[in-house]
Write a structure and sequence with these properties.
The structure is a homodimer. Chain A is of the alpha/beta class. Chain A has helices at 4-17, 37-40, 55-72, 131-146, 196-207, 227-240, 255-258, 270-286, 312-323, 348-353, 413-422, 434-438, 468-480, 486-497, 502-523, 554-558, 582-587, 597-600, 615-638, 646-678, 692-696, and strands spanning 47-49, 87-92, 111-118, 121-128, 154-156, 162-166, 212-214, 246-251, 292-295, 329-333, 364-369, 393-398, 449-453, 565-566, 602-603. Chain A has an 8-stranded parallel β-barrel with strand order 6-7-8-9-10-11-12-13. In chain A, strands 1-2-4-3-5 form a 5-stranded mixed sheet, covered by helices on one side. In chain A, helix 10 (348-353) links the parallel strand 10 (329-333) and strand 11 (364-369). In chain A, helix 11 packs antiparallel against helix 14 (486-497) and helix 13 (468-480) packs across helix 14 (486-497). Chain A starts with a helix and ends in a 10-residue tail after the last helix. At the A-B interface, helix 1, helix 3, helix 6 and helix 20 of A face helix 1, helix 2, helix 5 and helix 19 of B.
């Protein structure tokens, strides 16, 4: 012991010498902090057995080692065969090690965790249906331990085959609609250098079941398909592969012209198809498990097959044909509204795509945003989702909060994602949830999937704020199992990210669930939509009436005049795009939920609400409620100080203060604007602080003082 | 001891549990790692005395505590009065504690470090001429210890009063010419939240003597002057103030129109002046020590006083007048070339500004780029620097490597900065160095200063690469003392950043010094300039001939035809802008250094060089030499593996591999292009790998495979 003392002294001096480790949030929910004394017995591991003969199994084993070492103080001994009770045994379900247990078959990417006996000892088994299943089983086990959940008998396999992030990352390092710094891909240093962030990104995604990533912006640059960039994508793919993540690319329809030297991008031109076939072959030589292409065509100015009087199906099928021999797929975005804005942009995608149902190749999947418009705080679901039974439909959700407060607002999107997934479309009668459409079970599709527009950048905390991490987390968990309760997902995230103490996770989960309603209230209550500032979409601008297109203006959507507000979307033909009974329900004011009221109806300002208030009074009340809810979130968080390190606690507190200031801005700016038309006074105890002109004159990204 | 064991065990388990700390480079040169055993005695501190009754002194004391704790294992006891030999005593030179020592006066921002006796004990004293001097003295002491230099008798004060970083950061979080991620200011979270990066930034700057920062891009947005952004700037200023760093802002000339509601920005319009006076008063209410404004006017499309037929002096003086009562200054940029490109852009600033010498208020300083063009790898100095004796001139250097390989190339700019500063302009005969012009000593100016365009972003390593940090470091050190040897600065940076072992610092310093010559050789040898790709300036494009202005095209600068290459700048009138004997020297091929040959002269391809080679042969040789020099840097770095942690070693190795690939790209693309005109063959052992068309077709930021 005496001889050890100087050694210990040196170790301790090193340990205490540096500044305390800054809690930047960089470790996400994979913190693996030591288990509290009272919980140690529940998670004790005497030894572990885990053969790893492949890069993916080695990745899983490394993660388990890291997790056990962190949480147990030191990793227990790794042994070749079980020789003690309390062992952890990990491997393929069909391996010689585990086959004798005759576990239920976990299936593709699935895993089983359960108690068993091996070599006469009581053990815990993590068995994967395949290598990916082992990886996901390890992460599930670590999640259970970190969240201080019982290490339960678990059998789990993903409901969706494709669980993808879409990065709207440009080749110059900027991120469209990104609020977390610059692109993590760091193109200039690839392929020679694989940035360290990529390994962390891969682990985080694997921990929540994400198995694919589209590296570049859907507003794609042709250059991504040049040899230099294929080399870079290959370097990323090589780094992600051990974590069961495939790489996909967004492609620009006119690439054959821009970088191929052709004069046309007509999908029926054999030279064009040959160019794409050669390009696909080139990519698959570099990346044998390349996933496929994501295409934004004839949408918001992007080129597409319609430039050559061909349909979206013509375009998608041509690309599908060249990818087919390699096993690749085409994800073709249905976010189009190129037709006449006078016809109601909300219905444009339906009009365009429904007639094409049944015309797509079997390796085409349509990627459809959850709402008919564009990632608003709350939208009715896109009727297209219920109207193309012969076509696999991927859901596109937005994890980055373009319209929901961007970097700073605490808005837990798990609640929104789950609401969307559990929505019944009545496509084939009751029970036709969006979850069942996108997982392929409703119509028996071979391809299923969900894509989320990533909120990831090179900020130390990855997502721009600690709580934005929860949206990434919830996306992955719900893509794996859309049936999970968003509240449970919030709780397990909070437990892993901060502390599993129920005195913390309880109130914080409530705060997260409330946050989603709060943002709807202070931004767009009663079915209002797209009244955000022009272009950057940060802050209120119901007065916005600039720009080249009618349907890029706020006034196009709310239509407020002295006569009323809202859009009669029965008259526009939009409600008829829904299946019965929704078409009728949304067409009738009396049966339309308040949440969608002004989305579907144009109403007088003195329209009487079920609450007894006039429409105007209800609008004022909801905006005020939203601000009050943010104040409640602030008060709730203030009580959590004792549970959270100072740096992360302060970030959340400060951002909530920003959210409160900006919620007031939203409330006051919108009500000052709509008051011009309402013909009714403000309540006695409320008025916007400034005249409307002050709000209208604010520069981008800035509110007036509250 | 026994009772301590469990405690130690817990501590050790925590310590060993986490993953090894990633060496991201985030600690910059302020690492404070434990001193090696053999050096401990030299730097032993028995106790320390440091009163700190102000935020700035508290910042200095905190840094000393951090440094001593890190390097000595634990900080020695802090005491009220010296009671032992080997004490460290820190304070104001004029304080009761130190005044009895009758130290030489350190002056404003200056400090003294020396051995002394206090209370009968041998002590080391750090005495500041003012609080900033204490801060800088502490950092100087820590630098000496970290670099394992003797803690020498030092008396130091800055040669330049203004030592500023210019951030070309936009309000949307992007950084113009930034290659290190997004802006560290993080505008959306201010003022409620001061991002943690700002404290690290402040410490790093203070450690090298930087005392001011211009927060936003010289291509300024008017919004920076709105109340919301002034509040944000105040939050930054409050965070930087304890580190002796003042905040400045770039302003947009037309702000009175854009955000002030005026119809004019005419500097002679009393309403305009009143608007600026009110705005200045508003800023100084929020930031009492606000530094002043940086103005880019009538330059590259920016508005300015010439829009109203007023001169730059009219504009600068109006702003100066409104800042004067508050003690603020105007930094007016001389980077203008608005007149006819046919007249040689290189001479434009001189033509515009020299006639205004003597017309500026005494709180105006002109900010002049080092070269007449724009931050090329090597340029002759701007003749304007020697031609305005009645006007204080600030030097503008570029730390971010817009034209020098951007993120990845290892190019040590300390060598370039020092070359500029030591250049003799002959403004008042021999010895009229640029250092003496900008420090005010040559012409007796009250204001002196140097500005550097920052290379800082939110990348974990701050500057996009570990070695880019050296450029930030060298800028600060040379701004403090332009007489420092760039080699010595490189060595002290390398010692602090990696290890002070001379077996490392020796070869690495040589590599850094070589790197600056290498980039000139592989990009723009023989005085070539501005043959970079259009717009983004990454990679070679001597063929570039697109764009709205002649002087934005590469062909405007090199003028290569079959008859020859280069620009006869005697004929253009440019050489006459230099003072004798330089005007004559640069006008004559025989006396023009090879470094500037094609800058000043148009020569036939078979022009005979002093080496005996033709011009073409010399060009080929220089390009090849540049590639060889990068290969030598790679080989040199490969031998340093044992001295550097794996992560930083790999980053440097990988980036050198990129630099080598891109140096080959530069060599081959440029020579393939110029070969069209040279009429001479390539040497037997060399040819570009690809036809010229391949290089011309490369997408942005990408080279063909080497």
């Amino acid at each position: 012991m005496r001889r050890l003392l100087p050694v210990l002294a040196v170790i301790l001096s090193v340990f205490f010498a540096g500044p305390a480790k800054a809690e930047t949030g960089h470790d996400l929910w994979l913190r693996y902090r030591p288990i509290e004394t009272q919980h140690r017995a529940s998670y004790a591991v005497s030894q572990w057995v885990m053969p790893a003969a492949s890069p993916m199994l080695a990745a899983a084993r490394g993660e388990l080692q890291r997790g056990l070492a962190g949480m147990l103080g030191a990793a227990p001994p790794q042994v070749q065969a079980v020789s003690a009770d309390g062992a952890l045994v990990v491997g393929l379900a069909a391996s010689p090690l585990l086959a004798p247990l005759a576990l239920p078959a976990p299936g593709r990417e699935g895993y089983v965790i359960r108690a068993a006996r091996l070599n006469g000892h009581a053990v815990t088994v993590i068995a994967g249906g395949d290598e990916a299943g082992v990886l996901y089983g390890v992460f599930a086990y670590l999640r259970q331990v970190q969240a201080r959940q019982p290490v339960a008998d678990t059998l789990s396999a993903p409901r969706n085959q494709l669980r993808l992030l879409n990065h709207w990352d440009n080749l110059d390092g900027t991120v469209e609609r990104g609020y977390a710094g610059a692109s993590i891909w760091n193109w200039p240093v690839l392929p020679e250098h694989v940035p360290r962030l990529i390994a962390g990104y891969a682990r985080a995604n694997a921990s929540i079941g994400i198995n694919g990533t589209v590296l570049n912006n859907v507003n794609a640059q042709a250059a991504i398909l040049t040899p230099a960039y294929i080399e870079k994508a290959k370097a990323v793919a090589d780094a992600l592969r051990p974590w069961n993540i495939r790489v996909y690319l967004s492609v620009r329809w006119s690439a054959p012209i821009e970088i191929g030297g052709l004069t046309s991008a007509d999908p029926l031109d054999p030279a064009v198809k040959r160019w794409w076939a050669d390009k696909a072959a080139e990519i698959y030589r570099a990346i044998p498990d390349f996933g496929g292409f994501l295409v934004k065509a004839n949408s918001e100015g992007q080129p597409g097959p319609q430039d050559y009087r061909r349909s979206h199906a013509d375009g998608a099928n041509m690309i599908a044909d060249v990818l087919k021999p390699h096993g690749g797929i085409v994800m073709w975005r249905a976010f189009v509204y190129a037709d006449d804005p006078a016809r109601d942009r909300a219905g444009a995608a339906y009009r365009e795509f429904v007639p094409l149902d049944g015309q797509f190749r079997d390796n085409v999947v349509l990627q459809v945003k959850n709402g008919p418009l564009d990632f608003q705080p709350r939208e009715p679901f896109s009727p297209l989702l219920a109207a193309m039974p012969k076509t696999p439909l991927m859901l596109e959700l937005q994890i980055t909060k373009e319209y929901l407060g961007q970097k700073t607002h605490l808005v837990y999107l798990g609640a929104q994602f789950s609401e969307v997934l559990q929505t019944d479309t009545f496509a084939h009668g009751p029970g036709s949830t969006i979850a069942r459409i996108v997982d392929g079970s409703l119509d028996g599709h071979r391809i299923s999937g969900i894509a989320g527009v990533a909120n990831i950048g090179n900020d130390a905390d990855w997502s721009g704020s600690i709580f934005n991490q929860a949206d990434w987390y919830a996306f992955g968990r719900l893509a794996w199992d859309p049936g999970l309760s968003p509240r449970a997902v919030a709780a397990e995230w909070a437990a892993q990210t901060f502390t599993a103490d129920p005195a913390f996770t309880g109130p914080v989960t409530e705060m997260m669930m409330l946050s989603r309603e709060a943002v709807v209230h202070y931004m767009t209550p009663l079915g209002l939509h797209h009244i955000m500032a022009h272009g950057h979409h940060m802050g209120p601008a119901p007065w916005d009436a600039i720009g080249p297109r009618e349907d890029w203006k706020a006034v196009y959507y709310h239509r407020a005049t002295k006569d009323g507000i809202g859009w009669d979307r029965k008259a526009s033909g939009f409600t008829a795009q829904y299946k019965p009974p929704l078409a009728e329900r949304f067409a009738d004011v009396a049966t339309t939920p308040e949440d969608y009221l002004l989305w579907f109806h144009r109403l007088a300002w003195d329209h009487r609400m079920p609450s007894g208030r006039t429409l105007w009074e209800q609008m004022v009340a909801r905006y005020r409620q939203g601000v009050d809810e943010v104040a409640a979130m602030q008060a709730g968080w203030a009580k959590m100080r004792g549970f959270v390190d100072a740096e992360r606690f302060a970030q959340v507190s400060d951002y909530l203060a920003i959210q409160h200031r900006e919620a007031i801005w939203w409330r006051d700016a919108c009500l000052a604007y709509f008051a011009q038309f309402s013909g009714q006074p403000f309540p006695k105890d409320y008025a916007p602080k400034y005249p409307l002109a002050v709000y209208q004159a604010m520069p981008a990204y800035a509110s007036p003082p509250p």
